Amino acid sequence: MAWTARLIKEDEKHIFNQFVANCPKGHILQSYEWGQVKALTGWKPFRLVVEEEGAIVAAISLLKRAIPGIKKGIFYAPRGPVLDIKNHSLFLFLMDQVKSLALKEKVIFLKIDPDIPATNDDFGGLLKTAGFVSAEKGGSFEGLQPKFVFRLDIKPSEDELMANFYQKTRYNIRLADKKGVEIKENCAKEDLPDFYKILVVTAERDRFLIRSYEYFDIMWEQLVQNNLARLFMAYYQGEPIAGTLAFIMGDKAWYIYGASANEHRNKMPNYLLQWTMIKWAKSRGCTLYDFRGVPGNLSEDSPIYGLYRFKKGFNAEYTEFIGEYDLIFSPFYYKLWLVGEPLYSKNIKKLSALKKRLRSK
User: Fold this and answer.
1) What pLDDT digit, counting tens, does each position of 75-133 carry?
2) Of 7, 121, 183, 191, which has the maximum CB count within 10 A?
3) Superfamily of domain 148-320
4) Domain 3-145+321-360, CATH 3.40.630.30 — does that match?
5) Could you give the residue ranges of the DSSP H alpha helices within the chain?
6) Domain definitions of the chain by residue range
7) Residue 247: what pLDDT?
8) 3-145+321-360 and 148-320 have identical folds
9) CB–CB of 293/307 below 8 Å?
10) Buried b / exposed e across 23-53, counting CB within 10 Å, b at 16+?
11) How far apart are CA 149 and CA 154, in angstroms?
């Protein structure tokens, strides 16, 4: 079997994206444009493909991050690689090509968090065969994707979907509509500052860190402008009260960011926003709608149990992924990484919090 591997060029991004979009395990975070987002925020992307008779059969978008203080780096492939996961030989060939590139780039290890259910023992065995080690306790690595999500099959009709929602969810969707909440589905760049202002309010209320406005501006230029994302805003009496940002690629859509103002939360705008996004995803040919992350082992006394209950109300499937795995190329430096990365991440969080405080002054 004549497989060849190479890095693609910028003028080939459309064929790269076409393969990712059409592959059952394709993901927006493996798109060419997501690599561009990260390229503008401190990473260096490499798009590696495997071809057979001139056609792409496997792909992986690798993000390289330099490690401060040493001339080494790490590779991260969010929700990658993209290929037929049942083809073990192809997977092993791709990993060999990644290793060759890693040695040239002085990379210590490759980190992945693939879109594979935890129940897939076959793929778990393949990872071990390839030399991967579980990294579930490897620190709070920047950008790591959630292990637990809610996912909704949106192939049924709108009426069937609505009927399957929890009664309270159906009630709140209709309540928002009855109370006069209006949804703007095709927002322009001029709406982004309103969304970010509400996101800041949400972050302060619920005590979580958010990216800078510049990061959202980059996402707009790379994703929204290329029809890979859309901003939705909810209004009450002409005032913006909530907003959501969704990603889309191929037959999948992802709810990525949500924000709600302190005022008019009793109008239930977030329920109507979700229903609007689900219908939009269906209209674009999607069959899967991903509500994104929720914590595992969540109890009702948790401060974020309300988020879990909100997503659960759409009768989506609670899914646990296989988790975080590392392929080690330099064992010595990898051990140093395991010690130093938690400290590095902690300092990054402190710096982000400081920047947030300075922006608010």
Assistant:
1) 999 999 999 999 999 999 999 999 999 999 999 999 999 999 999 999 999 999 999 99
2) 183
3) Gcn5-related N-acetyltransferase (GNAT) (3.40.630.30)
4) yes
5) 13-22, 32-39, 88-104, 121-130, 158-164, 167-178, 192-206, 213-222, 269-283, 305-312, 331-360
6) 3-145+321-360, 148-320
7) 98
8) yes
9) no
10) bebbbbbbbbbbbbbbeeeebebbbbbbbee
11) 16
Rounded to the nearest 10 degrees, how much is the dihedral formed by the CA atoms of 304, 309, 315, 317? Answer: 30
143-173 as b/e: b if 16+ CB within 10 A: ebbebbbbbbebeeeeeebbeebeeebbebb
Q: Which two tokens stand for residue 180?
A: 């006069």
SS (H, E, C) 157-189: CHHHHHHHCCHHHHHHHHHHHHCCCEEECCCCH
Rg (the chain; Cα; Å): 21
268, 172 Cβ separation under 8 angstroms: yes
Report the Cα 256 to chain-centroid distance in Å: 7
Exposed / middle / buried, residue 66 (Cβ in 10 Å: 0-12, 13-18, 19+) = middle
pLDDT, tens digit (0-9, with 9 covering 90-100), for 114-128: 999 999 999 999 999
Give residue 163's Cα distance to chain centre. 28
Structure tokens at 246: 């969704």
pLDDT computed for residue 141 by the predictor? 52
Residue 323 backbone zone (phi > 0: left; psi -120 to 50: alpha; other: beta): left
Residues in the chain with pLDDT < 50?
138-140, 351, 354-356, 358-361
CA distance 256 to 208: 15
Token look-up 């689900």 returns: 278
Contact 65, 43 (CB under 8 A): yes
145: tokens are: 């994707």
Q: Who contacts 268 (Cβ-Cβ below 8 Å, separation ≥6)?
A: 172, 173, 175, 176, 179, 181
Q: How far is CA 325 from CA 63, 296, 335, 354, in A?
A: 15, 18, 15, 31
